[in-house]
Amino acid sequence: MNGVLVADITSLQWRAAIQAAITAPNIINGFLAGPIAEGVNAYGGGNGWRWGYGMFAILVPVCIAPAVIVLFWGDYRAKKLGGKFSTLLA
Length: 90
Fold this sequence. Notes:
This protein has 90 residues and is mainly α. It is 72% helix and 0% strand.
């Protein structure tokens, strides 16, 4: 979804830079995934799997919010133009 949004809202000149900025957090994931998974492990101490559900319920809406905002913004702009590009959808 991020690739589609980047392709829709950026010029060709900046598309690679924006795509690189969007995928840069994946580098951090490689180092953080192990400790987080260990903390959510059912056999470990602490909150275990319950906190895994809690993290999912908190992080998914937060991470999806920018994409949803961009989609609504694009919809607003399309409606504002008055269907000028409606022939592209057919």
